[in-house]
Amino acid sequence: MDKVDIIVIGATGFTGKHVVQLLAAFKKHDTYKTITWGISGRSKEKVNNLLSEIEEYDVDVTKILTIISDVKDDSICNVTKRARIVINCTGPNTLLSEYIVKACVHTGTHYVDISAELYHMLNVYRAYHKRAEEAGVLIVPSCGFASIPTSTGLIILDRHFKGSLHTAECYVELHIPRECYYGGRNKTLVHYGTWEAFVFEMTNMKKFKDLKKETFPEAINESVPTEIKKSFFHKHERKWWFPYPGPDYEVDSMAQIYFQEKKGKKPIHFRAYTTMPLLIHFLIIPLVFIAYFLCKLKCFRNLMWKHPGFFSFGLMSHKGPTEKLKNDLKYTFTLIGKGSDPTTKEHIVKITGSDPAYKSTATTALFSAVTILLEGSKTPKGGVLMPECAFYETDIVERLKSNGIDYEIVDKLPNGKT
After folding, report:
1. Which residue of 114, 117, 281, 357 could cross-link 276, Cys pair, CB 3.0 to 4.6 Å?
2. pLDDT given for residue 103 in this prediction
3. Cis omega (within 30 of 0) on the bond before 92?
4. pLDDT bucket at 415, cuts 50 / 70 / 90
5. Which residues form the Saccharopine dehydrogenase NADP binding domain (predicted)?
6. Residues with Cβ < 8 Å from 120, sequence gap 6 or more?
7. What is the 3-state secondary structure (H, E, C) of 291-348?
8. Within 10 Å of residue 315's Cβ, how many Cβ atoms?
9. Which H/E stretch holds residue 9?
């Protein structure tokens, strides 16, 4: 039985289709055209429709491996055993991903996913890290917009810094088209699948915090350097910022524990913040806190899933965003790294791109898989690892730079001059 290099699981979903389109475009790329791949989904009809859609890329779809499978039954092993690495685009990860991880460990197949669900990630770590290490299988969650930009930015800062990187602060800004704030027929930013995962994340946040205390008790009492202690709202570059609600801080926290235990490295103290225009955050944040507490009630969770448009002010829907809106949505990650000596230079990494939820997520997930495929000698041999750990020694940044995600490095003197 021949194996292919990559299989996309959940290929017919909203994000999965974006990954498949990028794979189809490999045919015209000298570096990647020899990579073999396949797709998997639950519905034969949807899989066939997807194959018809990618014929425009001049791909011979008869040569694409297609497998109809439900991740919840034993047939998922028929998928994982046919691939060297799988890209999991199913969701929500809290409900589905463990089946795939278990199959990958069993069949010796590497794995990446686009999850941002912390409780799921920690559960997978606890259950499969040692087994994956022993099997020589690399399991890397959170390879989408959460949390590759931050993880790769931290890798660059750490490599580039002269001396020991002590603190890193990340300022995340989404440049959202104004029509999304003022209403209109086409203001949807995110597909329903992302909304469904968001509700699970809020529901399980308390469980994650408790599980983290149990799993990494030594990390809970970590002292925070004074220079990165900030109030909930603080001003930076003439804007008001608050803690970034993505999983990036926790993902990095788990990465730092690995580096300390395996490499003997001193941990980098990391914080992430975001902002919104027009001071809308002073309205949105209280509503999010209210939703967080109400998500403890099953009836409220069901209402949020049933009426995503109402509870998200029209920003979420089953149709997802238009192509125009996806391309108009930009993002900037600005990471500021400092050493323990205040007289040394600061190092700044700026990461920019467009369409974070889909185009960028598809790009980061695919090239995470490609990096494992092509640079296996530079990645750890196995285990459940955060992206920062898995890709620290690799050239993933160069791949992303060549595929639509921009990185800029700036040295800044203590007096503010560059």
Report:
1. 281
2. 97
3. yes
4. very low
5. 6-140
6. 93, 94, 97, 98, 141, 204
7. HHHHCCCHHHHHHHHHCHHHHCCCCEECCCCCHHHHHHCEEEEEEEEEECCCCCCEEE
8. 17
9. strand 4-9
pLDDT digits (tens, 9 = 90+) for 368-377: 999 999 999 9
pLDDT band at 410 (very low <50, low <70, confident <90, very high): confident
From first CA to last CA, the distance across the chain in angstroms is 57
Whether the CB-CB separation of 135 and 110 falls below 8 Å is answered with: no
Tokens (6 digits) for 50: 């997807």
Which residues are CB-neighbours of 350 under 8 A, at least 6 positions away?
Answer: 332, 333, 334, 335, 406, 407, 408, 410
Q: What CA dihedral angle connects 114, 116, 122 and 123, to 10 degrees?
A: -70
State whether the Cα torsion 370-190-61-70 is positive or negative. positive
The pLDDT of 185-192, averaged and rounded, is 76
Paired strand residues for 138: 383
Instruction: Report residue 188 as tokens.
Output: 């949807």
Q: 5-14, 157-166, 188-197: which has the highest mean pLDDT?
A: 5-14
**At which residue do the structure tokens 């990461």 appear?**
351
Q: Is the pLDDT of residue 345 over 60?
A: yes
CA angle, residues 249, 277, 295, in degrees to nearest 5: 55
What CA–CA distance (Å, rounded) separates 41 from 30? Answer: 28
CB neighbours of residue 386 within 10 Å: 26
Q: What is the pLDDT of residue 377?
A: 96
DSSP state letter for 224: P
